[in-house]
Fold this protein.
Amino acid sequence: MSAATVSWNGQAGRWAPWMGWVLTAAGIYNLLWGAVVVLFPLSLFKVLGVPEANWPNPTGVAIWQCVGMIVGVYGVGYLAAALNPLRHWPIVLVGLLGKLFGPIGFVDAALIKGTFPVQFGWTIITNDLIWWIPFALILLAAWRAGEMGRRP
């Protein structure tokens, strides 16, 4: 089997069902997380036990709601990519990059500069870390299937 043709379930270029399930789960998760942040922006601060003195001011709340909107938009992208994970690999790549850079930004803001509540580190697990391996495997499968070299 050459690098350009990978076989999933006996058909070249087909993806494994788990890829669609993972992207669907990521899409639903992101839509829900984003909606909570947009509609109830201080709820995560409360749940995580962040002292009220460290809650954002009204401008910070608006920026935090924008973060929730962006996360929700990623959810729409993941749901679209779930229909054909190999073909829609750029969406998965952008998602993986966000899931890599997000924790880096968190470490910088919370642990190095001390400008972000360290309690938010718990959200890194479900927002980022659990998706690294499946997203990377989807990208590897797209590369092996030759999808990354094709133009849409």
